[in-house]
Amino acid sequence: MNQQKYATLLAFDYGRRRIGVAVGQSITCSARPLTTINCINQKPDWPLIEGLLTTWKPDALIIGLPMNMDGTEHEMSKAARRFSNQLHGRYGLPVELVDERLTSIEASSRIAEQKLSKKKRLDKKTIDTVAAQLILESWFVQCHNNPTS
Questions:
Q1: In degrees, to the nearest 5, what angle opens at C-alpha 75 toward C-alphas 78 and 18?
Q2: What is the pLDDT of residues 12-51, one digit of tens each?
Q3: Candidates 1.10.10.10, 3.40.50.450, 3.20.170.30, 3.30.420.140; correct CATH number of 3-145?
Q4: Which residues are CB-contacts of 121 (< 8 A; sequence separation ≥ 6)?
Q5: pTM score > 0.90 for this model?
Q6: Phi, psi (5° rounding) for residue 12?
Q7: What gap in Å lies between CA 29 and CA 109, rounded to an integer?
Q8: Distance in angstroms (rounded) separating the CA atoms of residues 135 and 149
Q9: Phi and psi based region of residue 42 (left: phi greater than 0; alpha: psi -120 to 50; beta: remaining)
Q10: Residue 97: closest CA among 26, 4, 14
Q11: At 137, is the secondary structure helix, strand, or coil?
């Protein structure tokens, strides 16, 4: 996918309980945490997702694909692929999967560094949104390094 043809992107860190969401711009290659979507019985809150798509009008969607450290697919990979297929089927937007190895750990580390002076506890919703931000930042790096993809 060539990032030049997309301006606004939404990234999703899929989970069975929560989905972290981030928004970004390909022009500036920047991303920021946006919100968390709660899942009920492992099903996404589709009306909330539709509201985000209506508000942000993304040109493409980026989904984190859980992978094991050895590069094989994780048990959550199938669920993330299903979620990406559902997004594409419902909304007709281009969807890309991005390896999300270690994003939750990196998100926790990034948040901890920012909150040390504030002495606030880490919450899982914040970690999910920052993980989505990292997924989108990773996509920007991949596209920058391979602009013809």
A1: 75
A2: 999 999 999 999 999 899 999 999 999 999 899 999 999 9
A3: 3.30.420.140
A4: 115
A5: no
A6: -125, 130
A7: 22
A8: 17
A9: left
A10: 14
A11: helix
